[in-house]
Amino acid sequence: MTEQYKIFETTLSGTAVGNPFKEVWLKATFTNGSDYYTVNDFYCGGGQYKVHFS
Question: Where do the DUF5060 domain residues begin and end (predicted)?
């Protein structure tokens, strides 16, 4: 759980084969009761992907 107004960040390991900028599609969905928010990840090299949400 992340406190209100704090930034949530996680790093995920994935493939570095091919072109991850074009070939990998990853999204995260955050929920709070009936509200939900979907955000895109981004590739930061070396098979590492990040998700940020605030």
Answer: 2-54
Residues 2-43: tens digit of each pLDDT: 567 788 889 989 887 888 888 888 899 998 889 999 998 888
Provide the edge-to-edge strand list for the sheet that holds 42-43: 8-13, 48-53, 42-43
User: Which residue segments constitute the domains of the chain, with CATH numbers given?
Assistant: 8-53 (2.60.40.10)
Cα 39 to Cα 27: distance, rounded to the nearest angstrom: 6
pTM of the model: 0.70
Number of other residues whose CB lies within 10 A of the CB of residue 23: 9
H helices present in the chain, as ranges: 20-23
